Amino acid sequence: MDHFEIRDGAMHAERVPLDAIADAVGTPVYVYSAATIRRHVSVFRDALAGLEQDGQPPLVAFAVKANPNAAVLSVLAGMGCGADVVSGGELRRALAAAIPAERIVFSGVGKVADEMALALEAGIGQFNLESEEEAVTLSEVATRLGLTARAAFRVNPDVDAGTHAKISTGRSENKFGIAYTLAPDAYARAAALSGLAIQGVAVHIGSQLTDLAPLAAAFARIGGLIADLRAAGHDIRTADLGGGLGIPYEPSKPIPPSPAAYGAMVAQATAGWKVRLIFEPGRLIVGNAGVLLASVIRVKPGSVAPFVVVDAAMNDLMRPALYDAWHDIRAVRADGERFVANVVGPVCETGDTFAMHREMDRVAAGDRVAFMTAGAYAATMASTYNSRALTPEVMVSGDRWAIVRARQDIAALIAADSVPSWAHDDMKDE
Ligand code: LLP
Fold it and tell me: Which helix (H) or strand (E) holds 126?
């Protein structure tokens, strides 16, 4: 459920009309609803109720990559969430938002020594190691600093998550984690390394999962592994079950399993594990807490359907171009008329297409449209391609709103380049 609703004929974010934001900030602009973010955290926590271990509730470590905006992280910090980070930059963002270090887990296949040192000095809760080579580096860094790194191995359970190939991570051919068949040996070797306290197991098989069966299969393998590791003498205290639960994007498609159904599956799969459970939801928390608000520049006739040219483009919202993702596109002021159109941006690529032959609200030049479900993997994946400024972000809470990232200044973008003195030289004598 989200808080983007039509009131008095116009779409609002909570109690703020989107038109008011567009008038003040211009378009394109991302708009987030704080109430929706909070609601999703509560729903997810409720779904995990009963999964306490030794009186400790599961840790909900928000996957910062889904939406790293400082205001978003601050809302989540205020709710007691932790963070799943995958770079030194994300770690710094999480700490700056006052997410306690002990609630931070550090994932990612390519952590470098400097990032490890930063995380160790901050005192993060857990490193999710993706290879034995990485364990060796972490051991060296921790030993040099005289610190102990609490760590888990991310285990690749070789399960097909049944999602888009580009966001599937749990097959043996994917780059992520260590093969679960090789895990006992990896744990044995890592246990002998100085500066490491190997405390857990981590798994994440992919994103936008619309079926619980692959998750259940992966967790069953993790349960077996935990038993084997304990039998071999390892003190396994945590199990990080990753993120991945899908959300509804396309109204005509079946709704993905609810957080409650996910929680029930987890309860069954993890019964008797006696570990602290960690979850890394990203999309589920922020996905439908955001819209990308854009204006229609013009409607251009097409051979099959008209092209609605909007002022947002693939550089602002990459998901359709990258994953053929479907985002609902609604008029901010819908009059009940519908038409079939292609919705495209101004960027000079055919891939800059948000929708083809889409039945949608009829819109004309000057109208505003909202790309729904644009709170996750949206603003954060933007680029300045075609020298377009990064899109500003706004957060709404009740009847209040604030710019939480200003529109990038094109002059500053250009000024960031530098021109060597010889660039203008006439090279004809060379
Ligand atoms: N944990 C790990 C280790 C991850 O790699 C990810 C996402 C998550 C948690 C959070 O997954 P979620 O709950 O959001 O599904 N850009 C793509 C999605 C990439 C997901 C990458 N990893 C998209 O726009 O669909």
Answer: strand 126-129
